[in-house]
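Researcher: We plan to redesign the surface later, but first we want a full-length starting point. Tokens attached.
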């Protein structure tokens, strides 16, 4: 990975993309420290020290929520809007047709997602500000409340814009990188705080070693899950083109165990945090019951979280993986899977295999996301938020970014990566 990034800085275009991404992340982190007026920062800090769902909410905001900065909502409104648009595309033929209309259709869908982001951001901003007002942390009038809500909504739109330009002009998925940066930036503080507790005797060294062992195991599991694949062997028939013979070679179709990547984790977390935010608008036993039910440590939340991870694993895989296209391309190029007839039987076979490995990947993803949180909760490790959700996002986004950098290097036939992969030194001659 280090070698890939070192080689990337030797290519002007790739270097410019990486530097653009770093500059956008810097702007995002600066905005996360710009406070929203009218909030008692000291009282808010004490509230977030309690951890629980507040720490989980702050995880996706990269610490901006605990400071109640202009970027306090983070990428959550954009993610919620994206989920709604993708779900609507399944039940609305007109929207599904729009997605298949090429670049123009894609631009329209993106525009609808932006409008949805504004709506979700405004709802969440009002809910968050109203919740703080009920707790006595925010003491402004209702007019001041609306002003703060508009500020937070504008901040959410700005975060969306930063993520989009990172995807277009930088490296990797912009929205995922913003979440990644928000998690990683808190790691040094968490390490220092934990070591201080160990030095003061408030944390047992054995508990710390167990937590580190869990973290290493989770990271290893995430890497295996992200890199795991099932390879379907494909044979290409021989054919004459002019005076030359082509084909007759064997290849394979790589089917990833976790095709959806970190998307199911992000989608499930964002959806389940939405009811908690809305409940903050209201007072009474019903609102308290909703907030208690959707707390990350509650059995209701855990059950829904597991179910939604599995659902979105299947859903997103169905969105990005098209067995019909693979089958058609194989048929056009004279390829076939041994023992399977070309055409519809090949499509059905690929769907069957993909369904099986997606189930295994979805269950493994859900276990990695939930089990570490439960174990650290049993050991009463509350010095910082540690859970499978954060680790999966960090590892998944890091691997995807590295793969994109390596893909860019291979596309340019850069000698450094070709040499590491067994190629000849020097540029590849075509």
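Model: Full-length starting sequence:
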């Amino acid at each position: 990975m280090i070698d890939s990034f070192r080689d990337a800085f030797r290519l002007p275009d790739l270097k410019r993309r990486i530097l653009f991404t770093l500059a956008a992340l810097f702007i995002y982190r600066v905005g996360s420290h710009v406070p929203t007026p009218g909030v008692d920062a000291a009282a808010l800090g004490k509230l977030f020290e309690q951890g629980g769902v507040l720490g989980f909410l702050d995880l996706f905001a990269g610490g901006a929520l605990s400071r109640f900065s202009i970027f306090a909502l983070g990428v959550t409104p954009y993610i919620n809007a994206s989920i709604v648009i993708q779900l609507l595309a399944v039940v609305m033929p007109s929207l599904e047709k729009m997605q298949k209309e090429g670049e123009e259709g894609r631009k329209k869908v993106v525009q609808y997602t932006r409008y949805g982001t504004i709506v979700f951001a405004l709802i969440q901003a009002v809910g968050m500000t109203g919740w703080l007002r009920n707790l006595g942390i925010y003491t402004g009038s209702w007019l001041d409340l609306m002003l703060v809500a508009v500020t937070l909504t504008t901040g959410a739109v700005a975060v969306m814009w930063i993520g989009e330009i990172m995807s277009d002009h930088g490296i990797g998925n912009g929205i995922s990188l913003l979440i990644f940066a928000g998690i990683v930036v808190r790691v040094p503080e968490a390490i220092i705080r934990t070591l201080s507790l160990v030095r003061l005797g408030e944390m047992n060294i054995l508990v710390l070693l167990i937590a580190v062992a869990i973290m290493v195991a989770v990271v290893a599991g995430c890497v295996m899950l992200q890199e795991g694949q099932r390879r379907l062997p494909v044979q290409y028939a021989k054919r004459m083109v002019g005076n030359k013979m082509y084909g007759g070679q064997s290849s394979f179709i790589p089917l990833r165990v976790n095709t959806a990547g970190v998307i199911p984790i992000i989608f499930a977390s964002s959806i389940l945090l939405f009811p908690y935010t809305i409940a903050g608008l209201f007072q009474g036993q019903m609102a308290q019951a909703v907030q208690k039910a959707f707390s990350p440590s509650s059995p209701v939340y855990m059950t829904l979280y597991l179910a939604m991870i599995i659902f979105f694993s299947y859903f997103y895989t169905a969105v990005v993986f098209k067995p019909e296209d693979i089958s058609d391309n194989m048929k056009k190029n004279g390829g076939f899977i041994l023992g399977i007839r070309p055409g519809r039987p090949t499509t059905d076979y690929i769907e069957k295999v993909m369904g099986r490995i997606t189930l295994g990947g979805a269950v493994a993803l859900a276990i990695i996301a939930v089990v570490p949180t439960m174990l650290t909760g049993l050991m009463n490790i509350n010095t910082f938020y540690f859970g499978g959700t954060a680790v999966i996002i960090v590892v998944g986004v890091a691997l995807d970014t590295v793969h994109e950098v390596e893909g860019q290097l291979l596309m340019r036939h850069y000698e450094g990566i070709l040499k590491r992969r067994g190629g000849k030194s020097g540029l590849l001659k075509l």
